[in-house]
Amino acid sequence: MITLYGFGTGFGLPEISPFVTKTEVQLKMAGLPYRKERAMPPASPKGQLPFIDDGGEAVADSTFIRAHIERRYGFDFDAGLSLAERAQAWAFERMIEHHVYWALIGARWVDAANFAKGPAHFFDGAPEHNREKLREDAQFRVAENYLLSGLGRHAPDDDVDLAVRSLFALSVQLGDKSYLMGNRPCGVDATAFGALAGILTPFFESNLRQRAEGFPNLTAYVDRMMDTYYPEFAWTPLRQAA
């Protein structure tokens, strides 16, 4: 039995982290039984979530977990794709994880109201005498990483404009298909779903979310993926929420 370590439910999502969501959906895609445990990043071999324990072997980082699943269990997440399509899927995955993801982080951690509503509560269980200091330090570190990502160097809303160009690319790629690369899900769909659901959750208000809602095929895609991979989760379809 594989054990998946993640943050757990929160922010109106079945899993707080887009990267843990990616791995969980890929485990479901592969049809592998697993159990899920809550953990914090310091518990991981790489200091980040997700990580898995597979028969005593610890594997960290969602991309390396995918490679582990493909190698150990012989499952091809991109079965049916041509060599060119596999390359395109990889390029979209890199765009999502190194651009769209950071826009999500800006909306969730850098925006003061959203930080107070969401990530600040990660520290509710800390000793009262240093709880606020831990919150401030964590927000500062994330804001610093946001700056280093490149998006945080731009004027307010310019970062969102850049992120929306990536959302536009995803929307064009999806078109009227059910999934990004065709009419069956593949590995990059787990990545896209995790990031897009994190942006579109009604829990947070942001310019990024409002702009993302302007792509009806992306909102329908998130609803479709949620219904397929988390049918038990109480998710109000985005078409209804809008």
TrEMBL record:
Location of the Metaxin glutathione S-transferase domain: 165-225
Residue span, Thioredoxin-like fold domain: 18-114
Domain of life: Bacteria
Pfam (any one): GST_N_4
Record-linked InterPro entries: FAX/IsoI-like (IPR026928), Glutathione-S-Trfase_C_sf (IPR036282), Glutathione_S-Trfase (IPR040079), Metaxin_GST (IPR033468), Mito_Protein_Transport_Metaxin (IPR050931), Thioredoxin-like_fold (IPR012336), Thioredoxin-like_sf (IPR036249)
UniProt protein name: Glutathione S-transferase family protein
